[in-house]
Amino acid sequence: MKLPDDFITKYQRLLGAEAPAFLAALTEPANTAGYRVNPERQVPAKLTSAPTVPYAPWGYFGTVKGRSLVHQSGTVYSQEPSAMFVGATAAPARGERVLDLCAAPGGKTTHLASYLQGTGLLVTNEINRKRVRVLAENVERFGVANALILNDSPDTLSPVFPDFFDKVLVDAPCSGEGMFRKDPGAMDYWSLDYVDECAARQREILTEAVKMVKPGGQLIYSTCTFAPEEDEQMMAWLVKTFPDFQLVPVEKTGGVIDAKPEWADGNPDLKNAARLFPNRLQGEGHFVAKLQRATTAEGVQPHGQAHLGTALTGEQRRLWADFSRTVLGDAAPTGDLVTIKDQLFAVPANLPALKHAHVFRPGLHLGTFKKNRFEPAYALALASDPQRVTQTLAIDQDQWIAWVHGEALSLTTAPAKGWYLLTCDHQPVGFGKVVGQTVKNFFPKGLRFTVYPDDLD
Ligand SMILES: C[S@@+](CC[C@H](N)C(=O)[O-])C[C@H]1O[C@@H](n2cnc3c(N)ncnc32)[C@H](O)[C@@H]1O
User: Which family does this protein fall into (predicted)?
Assistant: First the structure.
């Protein structure tokens, strides 16, 4: 792998004696796979016996196959280890309101959700129409029940959520120098000018992001690039432009080091931010900063209240109540129930008016009203705790392989007719409908896959 000449020259100048080690690390094959386990699941011991990522709760070094039960059931999320430092720095407390402004495909969002444990509010936004679909798939797979998924530009969102969030994460689109080793294609569009273009876009995003942090709240900024223009210099610009924001210390362990004031305007507070270099730890590289907004700033109230969808008809209420009582028991999700066309959602409470936002998912998808019946959603299955759900049906590995392929299952002894949360090795894998000796398959058509012998451990 050949790094761009301008890149080599730039980092030789910036890093001096450390440059050879840094440049050598970038040309070595990446050996930095990682995954996070989902604290809401009963996680198999083989996943938690791997070496732990020192700075990231739920983080492990190693690989998990995409066509595996633990991946399909949202028991794990594969994530490059240094990216885990971002969620670990944000570490929202239970009950907080959190915005992930640049969220697809959902690595940081699912990490933030693990901290929130279904409490508070997670607004997760992705500007790109194709990428927001992937974000939604990952949010659903991870069983996140308290998320509102939006598909907007930051300047559309800032008037909707003024001074609203306890934490705002900007995991910014960047020049991706930390991706060179994993994805050498990232070098094709890299240039010194590209770094400046990225920095200009980051300033635009941050200008909107700061407006959504409540007084006393925090902004977390991260990139997967080493470029000072997008990292230290961006933070130096931010604290100068928005003086009610101050860089506060990021806790550093496991080879993470202070950011470099000398790469910007010398502001000593820049040391509070963190640098992850691939020659110093097992990870691809990141920059992470935490900024606190002063409590003295005057906050404004967001406008109005969200009116999403339509209230349920009496018949719809009855159908949902029957399903929820019989199948879910006391595991029924919380949130305001609304329908959009024939789809039922549980919408997080206390949202401001969203009429200028493009709502991709208003909350947890509970299911679909068909003529005289209710069909539960895959998202509801993965957000359900099998230990609390009344009607569960355990299937074995062979049945799981048939299930994710879209096949009906034949049972030798069948329970009573109705909907069941299917589990395999204690993980939720979807809802099935038992009719006679058969379990009808409702695994979403777009997600079906074939498991090959190599996919099994
Ligand atoms: C680094 S990626 C986010 C990765 C994600 N946080 C994760 O952990 O999976 C940056 C995201 O910003 C989005 N983006 C690009 N331009 C943007 C803009 N002008 N405003 C907001 N987001 C933008 C990209 O589509 C991309 O999904």
Answer: Belongs to the class I-like SAM-binding methyltransferase superfamily. RsmB/NOP family.
- Ligand 1, residues 86, 101, 102: which to mutate, most atoms within 8 A of Cβ? 102
Q: 321 lies in which domain range?
A: 305-352+363-384
CATH number of the domain residue 282 falls in: 3.40.50.150
- In this prediction, residue 297 has a pLDDT band, given cuts at 50, 70 and 90, of low
pLDDT tens digits, 316-328: 999 999 999 999 9
* Start-end of H helices in 178-281: 192-209, 232-241
Together in a domain, 284 and 241: yes
CB of residue 283 inside a 6 A radius of ligand 1: no
Q: What is the ipTM of this complex?
A: 0.99
Residues tagged in the binding site annotation? 102-108, 126, 171
Co-location of 316 and 280 in the same domain: no
* In a shared domain, residues 217 and 260: yes
Distance from Cα 106 to the centre of ligand 1, integer Å = 10
CA distance 124 to 101: 6
Q: Is the pLDDT of residue 302 over 80?
A: no
Residue 30 maps to a domain: no
Helix (H) / strand (E) element for 113: namely helix 107-116
Termini Cα distance of the chain:
32
C-beta neighbour count of 449 within 10 angstroms: 14
| Better-scored residue on pLDDT, 12 or 331 | 12
CATH number at residue 433: 2.30.130.60
From the CB of 105, is ligand 1 less than 6 Å away? yes
Q: Rg of the Cα trace of the chain?
A: 23
DSSP letter for each residue of 338-371: EEETTEEEEEPSSPPP-TTS-EEE-SEEEEEEET
Q: How many domains does the chain have?
A: 3
202 and 331 fall within a common domain? no
Closest-CA residue, ligand 1 atom 1, reads 173
